[in-house]
Design a protein that fits this description.
511 residues, mainly alpha, 0% strand, globular, SNS_sf
Length: 511
């Protein structure tokens, strides 16, 4: 008997998986990464990374969740008792990300309201850091709460936890059926407006102009694999959890290709929109496009408001649409991130879904209040860098190596996927997961550890963000290490009942 929650339709699952993959990073990370890594030439390593790491790992995680019918911890437990900690580690990484990701969505809510009167004024940088975030304390200090961040943050958690309370089919699936089409429509409007602006062609030329000399640079290939890894929501328990809600008969490999290419299509759309707008800004200021290119939080909350100020017409509406797209992309991803630990708690401790949402989501919501303080930005910056670099990528490396090399499960997974899928897996899938992905991720992790760990022992601080050694140790390294340590401790705790590791737990709130 199938007691586990299920998606109502295949389309519902695809909307949810694509919604998880399409997040804030697609809009503000990909365009800048592509530009800096060879422009049009970057699409060669990017496509190779998608086909040798992104889609293969998606297929693997879809197959794991579908075959073992469990959250990430339960899935790893069923594969091998000793590997359960990897599932909890991935869940804890997702937990940390949810605490600060929610705050960035809160900023986007505030900025969508500011758009109506262009409240950010002419000095958008000063407005963000001084007027809005009230950043008046040193890194490591919290200061007081910032109401302009705190209130929308409470709204974010109320919406996300409310959706999760309703369950998989009535909550997550229904919400994504609204969010994802709305996001695509809004972004298409943004792109159409962007490419009709004066100077937009210059921006697009800068984005697409291929610099083939960079293809020989190992850092460009690392950037391509990194972008695929971070943007597809792989290696932090999401896709394992989501695929565990699929019906017994489902086309796993086809789903993975649809999600992988759907995510990449949106990234390309985002690149066109962003660089069309940056070309307009360069045109207005009479400078080359490379002088206005930026990524990350600065692009969204400093550069874009400045550009919106210069729009020839309907700038308030355009501003609202842009920040609304960030809100929708963020909410769909935050739902999936939070669902990973909700599902883990339900499976491990045999509690109701409602209790898991209240405890897991409630704890994340309380911790997220740290980032709504005057010193919240520095905590957010350090946690984001370290949990992404030494959490997501490291989990991915361990996951692939353990499954391919130690547990030798790729053959079983290939057989399971091929039985129910139209697109059959062959040698490319096995080679990608057993050789290519481990080598690239291993090289990446070696470089990151060498670059960041050694800096703690230098006499002068050369840390990430030029933060002090003490702050980086506690605000960065301890956060990343804490996800692993707590994950191991959770793996060592006993399952609530003897059947819990082998049977799916019932979930409440499903119709």
């Amino acid at each position: 008997m199938e007691n586990r929650s299920q998606w109502g339709t295949r389309a519902g699952f695809i909307f949810a998986a694509v919604g998880s993959a399409i997040g804030l990073g697609n809009i503000w990370r990909f365009p800048a990464t592509a530009y800096e890594s060879g422009g049009g030439a970057f699409f060669i390593p990017y496509l190779i990374a998608l086909l040798t790491a992104g889609i293969p790992i998606l297929i693997m995680e879809f197959t794991m969740g579908h075959k073992y019918r469990g959250s990430a911890p339960l899935t790893y437990k069923k594969m091998s008792k000793g590997s359960e900690f990897i599932g909890w580690w991935a869940v804890l990484v997702a937990f940390v990300i949810s605490t600060y990701y929610s705050v960035i969505i809160a900023w986007a809510i505030s900025y969508s309201i500011f758009s109506f009167n262009l409240n950010w004024g002419s000095d958008t940088e000063a407005f963000l850091f001084t007027d809005y975030l009230n950043l008046t304390v040193d890194p490591g200090q919290t200061g007081s709460f910032v109401p302009g961040v705190l209130i929308p943050l409470i709204i974010v958690w109320a919406v996300v936890l409310g959706i999760l309370f309703k369950g998989v089919k009535k909550g997550i699936e229904t919400a994504n059926r609204i969010f994802i089409p709305a996001l695509v429509i809004i972004f298409l409007i943004i792109v159409i407006r962007a490419i009709t602006l004066p100077g937009a062609i210059d921006g697009l030329e800068a984005f697409f102009a291929p610099d083939f000399s960079k293809i020989g640079n190992p850092d460009v290939w690392v950037a391509a694999y990194g972008q695929i890894f971070f943007s597809l929501s792989i290696a932090f328990a999401i896709m394992i959890t989501y695929s565990s809600y699929l019906p017994k008969k489902t086309d796993l490999t086809n789903n993975a290709f649809i999600v992988g290419f759907g995510n990449s299509s949106f990234e390309l759309l985002a690149g066109i929109g962003v660089f069309g707008i940056l070309g307009f800004m360069a045109n207005q200021q009479g400078v080359p496009v490379d002088e206005v290119v930026s990524g990350g939080v600065g692009l969204a909350f400093v550069v874009f408001p400045a550009i919106i100020n210069e729009f020839p017409a309907l700038n308030e509406l355009f501003g609202f649409l842009f920040f609304a797209s960030l809100v929708l992309a963020g909410l769909s991803s935050l739902m999936s991130i939070t669902e990973t630990y909700v599902a883990g708690l339900v499976d491990k401790f045999k509690i109701s879904r409602s209790k898991a949402v209240l405890f897991g989501g409630g704890t994340a919501a309380v911790i997220s209040l740290l980032f709504a303080t005057q010193g919240g930005l520095s905590f957010l910056d350090a946690a984001d860098y370290f949990i992404n670099q030494f959490g997501v990528a490291f989990v991915g490396l361990v996951e692939v190596v353990v499954i391919a090399w130690f547990l030798r499960k790729l053959g079983d997974f290939k057989e399971h996927a091929n039985e129910i899928s139209d697109i059959k897996l062959g040698w490319w899938w096995t080679l990608s997961l057993s050789v290519i992905t481990p080598l690239v991720l291993g090289y990446t992790m070696y470089g990151l550890f060498k670059q960041n760990l050694l800096k703690l022992f230098e006499t002068e601080s050369g840390n990430y963000g030029n933060y002090s050694d003490t702050f980086i140790l506690f605000g960065g390294w301890f956060v990343a290490a804490g996800a692993l340590v707590i994950g191991v401790l959770l793996a060592l705790t006993k399952w609530k009942s003897s059947e819990a590791a082998e049977e799916e737990s019932k979930k409440t709130g499903e119709g």
